[in-house]
């Protein structure tokens, strides 16, 4: 389970789609960058390559992350100087989903790695050691980017921050690993919902590709923000279980999350009202 909480924690989640460029390079499909029929055909070609003989024709199988394109990164940044109260902030990339330049994968990766490389927060995700961290590394390499400090590694695990070693580093926290292995590992939706925390709301990961084709990047970003809040609330619950948060501190952490949600709703992010409503509904059902 969790061993410690650092002064800066970033509970994050990433959404991605099959990359049409992968189909162009590896399968000789026509070039396509934005949402289009050609991009849809590229998606289908990559899925077809990954399907097993008995899979349905419309099945969307897992595609290796290096063949995918990151379209959004969201997280809750928690800064807590020693002796002080935590301050939470919602980070959403792209900062403007209607701006093609700000939505470019290179821009998303550069912003993420520069910020993480400078702050060196404890990264917290769900299945992140198997998916989110690898896709950041792989897509940064594919795009020819430097690591901007994110890629720095200490000579020994205890000598510094290491985002490449989830097994030994306190800075790469995969909540899924803490909850179970193999068949006993719950989904984020299961673990969160049974704990009185909103899981998947209205949208699932399988919907993201079609939403991108339908030019609904704003909707993808909203869904990604839901997962960021879910991940942070589950992290706080597991930190409480691990003895790293007192019951009082855990209650305060939940209050801070609710205050952040209300502040973001006040700034115009009306979709987060749905998260608050689902949170209240689950709390009433679980009696927590």
Q: Can you tell me about this structure?
A:
With 288 residues, the protein is α/β, with parallel strands linked by helices. It has a single domain, classed as Nucleotidyltransferase, domain 5. The chain contains ten helices and five strands; from the N terminus they run βααββαβαβαααααα. Strands 3-2-1-4-5 form a five-stranded mixed sheet, sandwiched between helices. Helix 1 crosses helix 2, helix 8 packs antiparallel against helix 9 and helix 9 runs antiparallel to helix 10. The mean pLDDT is 94.
What's the helix and strand layout?
Layout: E1 8-18, H1 20-27, H2 37-50, E2 68-79, E3 87-93, H3 105-119, E4 122-125, H4 132-142, E5 172-174, H5 175-179, H6 188-194, H7 208-213, H8 217-241, H9 247-266, H10 272-286
Parallel strand pairs: 1-4, 4-5
Antiparallel strand pairs: 1-2, 2-3
Helix pairs in contact: 1-2, 8-9, 9-10
Elements, N to C (H/E): EHHEEHEHEHHHHHH
* Helix content class: 40-55%
Query: Could you give the count of β-strands?
Result: 5
Largest sheet: 5 strands, mixed
Between the first and last Cα atoms, what is the distance in angstroms?
A: 22 Å
Contiguous runs where pLDDT drops below 50 for at least 5 residues: none
Using the coordinates above, name the CATH class: Alpha Beta
Which structural category fits the helices and strands?
A: alpha/beta
- By CATH, the topology is Nucleotidyltransferase, domain 5
User: What's the CATH superfamily, by name?
Assistant: Ribonuclease H-like superfamily/Ribonuclease H
